[in-house]
Amino acid sequence: MEPLLQHLLNGLLLGSTYSLLGIGLTLIFGLMNVVNFAHGEFYTLGAYVTFAGLTVASVSFVLAIPLTILAGMAVGAACERLLLRPLRAASIDTTMLVMIGLWIALQNAELLIWGGVAKSVPTPFSTQPVVVGPVSVAPLRLFVFAVSALLIAAAHLVLARTKLGKAMRATFQDRETAALMGVSIERIHTITFALGAGLAAAAGALLGPVFLVYPSMGDLAALKAFSVVILGGLGNFAGAAVGGLLLGVAEELGAGYVSSGYRDAIGFVIIVAMLLCRPSGLFARAERVG
Amino acid sequence: MRHLVQRIWALSLAAALLAGLGAPAVFAQPGEPIKIGVIQPLSGPVAASGSYVRMGAEIARDWINGRGGVLGRPIQLLIEDNKSDPKEAATAAEKLIVRDKVPVIMGAWGSSMTLAAMPKLEEYGVPMIVETSSAASVTKRGNPWVFRISPPSEMEALGLERYVKDLAIKQAAFLAVNTDWGRGAVTAFGDLLKRSGATVGATEFMDQAATDMNAQITKIKAGPSDTLFLTTSVEQITLVLKQAQEQRLGRKIITTGGSSSPSQLIKQAGAAAEGTYHLLFFLPWFPEAMPDGRLAKAFVDEWQKRGHPFEGLTEGFRGHDGILTAAEAIKLAGKPDPKAVREALWKVNLMGVNGPIRFEKDGPAGKESGQSRPSIFVVQIKDGKVALPAFLAKK
Amino acid sequence: MKRVVGVVLVVVAGTAPFWVWNAYHLHTLIMAGIFSILAMSLNLLLGYTGQLSLGHAAFFGIGAYTSALLTLKLEWSPWVGLLVAILLPALAGFVIGRLALKLRGAYFVLLTISFAGVVSLVSVNWMALTQGPLGLPGIPPVELTLPGLGAVSLRSKGAYYYLVLGAVVLAYGVCRRLVHSRLGRALVALRENEPLAESVGVDGTHYLVLATIVSAGMAGAGGGLYAHYTRFVSPEVFLFTYTVTMVIMVVAGGKGTLAGPVVGAVIFTVVPEALRAFASWQWQMLLYGILLIATLFFMPRGIVPELADGWADHWRPRPRTP
Q1: Complex ipTM value
Q2: C-chain residues near A267 (CB < 8 A)
């Protein structure tokens, strides 16, 4: 019984990291329909910015996170203006390839600047685990879980309740009408992409200290993020959040009870099963997927 | 205007194409540097390790050139990135051999990279010094152009054999990276334990890029093993130690493979690394304890003088020893000719940072590869510092 | 004009082993050839049906492993190995196509990614079959039994080059026939407007499955050729970077055209090697990424369509305006 509880806890914590990665991408991929292969790089960038802030600029940990989000948003906005806007008329595959190029360029730039050695991010939390009955967990991870939940809730509120969110949803549902209604389409595109990048950077800021910071950390993360986004329904925050948790728990239980070597395969099999049964994702209302 | 720009860009690409295809090789003149090829993973998940080997190689190059070079000529390292991809390793080998005409290569770090490059060695007849790969098949495939200075997993396990009783291992669990290296270690150390009367418990694997090993740790914790053998790169070791602390695994942990860097672990895993044992091939904290203490100390000093991270020494020495071996072989051969260098490699008998380097025959008769017997050490992290384990200090 | 270009290309390609500078460059051309087969196969899906397969490396890898295992373990002839290397991935393509059923767009992409992920993990973990991460070294080279000459081992670069060239021409021919056939027209109709196509009786799933089968089989052929050339396969053939490379070649070359993938394959095989010659290892991939972005900026529809349009514009008689 003990291992099962610990496995479940592990799965939820792991899943929350997937959810965090997914919510940024669901904005960019789900709403803007940009296949953002560079999403992992915004995540990595966030981790490096936090690392730099804490070690070079001696900023406090709590302050570093919002600063990283702002940095991520700035870089995201720049990418949108410089790379995506000129190619707005091009096909989705062309923008996908530009994002691939950005992915390669950013990762290798990071390798050039920081080197390949993994960096450890200092945090104010103790490394002694918090013990609750049969399970134990590090305080840092609880903090990350809490902040992730906050970010997911905040993002959902922005999208669902604010005027900006309304403008965003309108733009991506029907551009012409939104423009007729007075929405500045160009600004919305930039803001949406910036928000997505900022959320990815936030994930990097939070997860960099949990794991380690190195140039290729974003690759696996991006792949999981895509799975989570599609699972949860494109553009659906709640879907991405729940999808992430489910994927985390499934992988954890699979690794614990079936085979650790095939761990990721179990995730994939679940995704395939999901796609066959409910192709439009967990939470999406019935939509045409074909 | 748009079409003009397009045409210019298309022409530039075409020019790059022709340049890539057309650039001829340079003919070597006496007095010109002797080139030695180096193939390492310089990008991707193990970029750090490849970089350390490169840094060690560069130290060796500078020392050798400072002493007058080889055969009166300086040596030059031609460094290629294999991008952790066997296809790239093979292509890099081909480029070094055909275009740059190197007489000897050092590489390629990971076993599958080395195995992919090996057919090229035989095709063109150029020897390669293997500095890190641990898969047995590297020297057992009957490729007479391969000379390895790193220990295969079996040899490494033998290095631990005399300490099994001292370490009091009754049942060990394994957690290894899911590559040839990790799997080879599991097999080799598993056999060792069985020979020594211990039993093997849970055997778990992790993907090379994985960052969350909690599932595997929970599973191992649920079993009765008293020791955990951990084989992977230093980044994953850091993560496993942290996560093991989080889950209060509370077991003796022994890392194998020589890639763990206890200094980096102390820095990044802190208290989680306390009490762990590590199998290494170099002791940068006690260089005097190495077979050639003076050389080891000089290497450590030079490394630090260059501002390289101390943590990289446990891998960097491989680059140094590899280049040292290559240079010695070229000197013994009398000319930078691949076939002569191969003959000369069998005659090499020198002292590297790790210890004596001399090749013995390994593999099928008539097509043996060369395998040296490197020194193997055990250290422990105690009170936040690296120390010789208690049972060794007594002896 | 097209005909002249075609003839020049054939002559240049056909005589390559004689004038190409050295074996390393010939190696690059052989890899370019193998990748053009892969790119053409992906183009069938991406360019003509509009569906993106991000797991295409799986078909490539299955083909490579199939031929490797059959020739190593069962000691079959490499020609039979190559044949099965086409059939087995084609079967996998059939399974994927049928599984996909009503899945399109992002969902199809995710299915292909998941499939590739599972196959990759099987190749790493099923030690008994694939030797896992140790890989399969020592794959026998292709042998040709010519009348009068006996068995000729296609081990030499020149000989293998011609084998690959032949395969490229064959693959190109297959694509050409397909595209101009009823299947091709159906695929394009589905890509442009699936509901409309279905309303006139074009069965979307049926044709998608067909396209996937051919595409997968072709990728498998590329895999088999790769295995017998490099003589070593390991689970790294399933790396995502291989799929990404194929996508780059197709889209940057010009998806939906016949020549696009081949041009893309040649350029994006040679450019990284050229970078190896001219840039130190720290800058190679960074420059590659920048080059990629720039190529798409200047030629967003792909190299072949943009250049073809530019050429057509050049020759079009300009209207005389006052």
Answers
A1: 0.84
A2: 117
